[in-house]
Amino acid sequence: QQQVKQSPQSLIVQKGGIPIINCAYENTAFDYFPWYQQFPGKGPALLIAIRPDVSEKKEGRFTISFNKSAKQFSLHIMDSQPGDSATYFCAASKATSGSRLTFGEGTQLTVNP
Amino acid sequence: DAGVIQSPRHEVTEMGQEVTLRCKPISGHDYLFWYRQTMMRGLELLIYFNNNVPIDDSGMPEDRFSAKMPNASFSTLKIQPSEPRDSAVYFCASSFYSGQGFRSGELFFGEGSRLTVL
Fold first, then answer.
1. In which band, very low, low, confident or very high, does the pLDDT at A101 lie, cut at 50, 70 and 90?
2. Strands, DSSP E only, in A18-78?
3. Contact B43 A89 (CB under 8 A)
4. Who among B45, B102, B105 is closest to A98 (CB)?
5. Partner of A13 for a Cys bridge, out of A17, B8, B94, B103, CB 3.0 to 4.6 A?
6. Residue B104 has pLDDT above 70, yes or no
7. Rounded to 5 degrees, what angle do the CA atoms A41, A75, B95 make?
């Protein structure tokens, strides 16, 4: 009930490509879905987040698409750059539980020049 | 603000030794989390505190692990005795939950403490 499943485990794209990372959750009580970005040797940092009252959220080149009925959400990176190479984690939580996030397994993204 | 500060950044110890990891959260944050990251298990929540009180320690692997938060600006995670399978990167994170906006509850992570138990 508390799991968040993320795929793929790793992803390699060329510069300018549009990598897509997918996540699925089970707990219908989740109402907050952030994505975190982690560079080697650093802690994860919040990239973008969405609540289930909208189906899409954009911040710069990053877009979250949310499908409440399917209990799935995904991250799209437009015009990807080598500097986007990092590990991306999706997560989910219930707002009433504060910040107790359940993280996906992570996707290691490599953007080749 | 300096962000979440963790120490030590790297620790190499021998099996059976006591390990203490330290964390200073961001001032004003009322939640503090300890996570463990490994290749096999990803990011695991070990324990979290709200206003210095432990709320959920169900992720603590076993009795060898303990965590304290004696005041709003300091927390420790202790492993005694340590074992090779405890080798991981341990992250501390803090947040302030306001209930407003998508950044509500944003976790601010430290840079982690990389523990190697030989």
1. confident
2. 20-25, 33-38, 45-50, 56-59, 62-67, 72-77
3. yes
4. B105
5. A17
6. no
7. 55
